[in-house]
Amino acid sequence: MAPRLTLRRAGAEDIRFVMAVEATPGHDAFINQQAEAEHAAQLASPAFAYFIAEAEAAPVGFAILSELTDRRGNHCLKRIAVAQPGRGFGTPLFNAVTDWTFANTAAHRFWLHALASNGRALHVYQREGFTIEGRLRQARPRPDGSREDLIILSLLRPEWQALRRRAA
Ligand SMILES: CC(C)(COP(=O)(O)OP(=O)(O)OC[C@H]1O[C@@H](n2cnc3c(N)ncnc32)[C@H](O)[C@@H]1OP(=O)(O)O)[C@@H](O)C(=O)NCCC(=O)NCCS
């Protein structure tokens, strides 16, 4: 059974936790790290929303939404990560931010991208109903000078409504 998580909006006091999770060994292969000042500027921007997932009152992961001011209803999950992958926290966090987005914004298309090598994330996103839209070939440079494909996925509002109706 999925662990019980609560989702809350993050404040400036949560930036350190976000940065600590970004710096988790192994995460650097899949997510970027940002400086404290960049996080603070994003946190203060209406285009972004930061969330913290908690289990038993302790933070276990975060998610950052972007493009929330897009007038065409395309909102983005910029980053999602948990401190301890593989414990079942990422799936409810992912679903909670998806629900928040469709319930609290005019999003029609909620989208994200993942590195082609990120099998765990791609598995979770597709299992939870997201569709692969395409592949940005060699879009992401690696530290060793090679390049990797990015996979674009999305969920549309009618698809989200149908998924949650089925789950009810
Ligand atoms: C992606 C992430 C948020 C998912 O959260 P999580 O807590 O690890 O995910 P869960 O434990 O809920 O589920 C993991 C699923 O992936 C599967 N999995 C694990 N490794 C896998 C792999 N290499 N390939 C395919 N599936 C894999 C597990 O079997 C499980 O699926 P199942 O429940 O259907 O068996 C988390 O792994 C994470 O923070 N990763 C590092 C940062 C990152 O990659 N962020 C996403 C950037 S796009």
User: What is the count of distinct domains?
Assistant: 1
Round the Cα radius of gyration to an integer and report it.
15 Å
Work out the strand percent. Answer: 25-35%
Q: Work out the number of β strands.
A: 7
User: Averaging pLDDT over every residue, what do you get?
Assistant: 97
**What is the CATH topology?**
Aminopeptidase
The percentage helix is: 25-40%
What is the overall number of helices?
5
Can you identify the CATH class? Alpha Beta
Shape: globular
For the biggest sheet, the summary is: 7 strands, mixed
**Strands of the biggest beta sheet: in what spatial order?**
1-2-3-4-5-7-6
Structural class: alpha+beta
Low-confidence stretches: none
CATH homologous superfamily identity: Gcn5-related N-acetyltransferase (GNAT)
CATH architecture, please? 3-Layer(aba) Sandwich
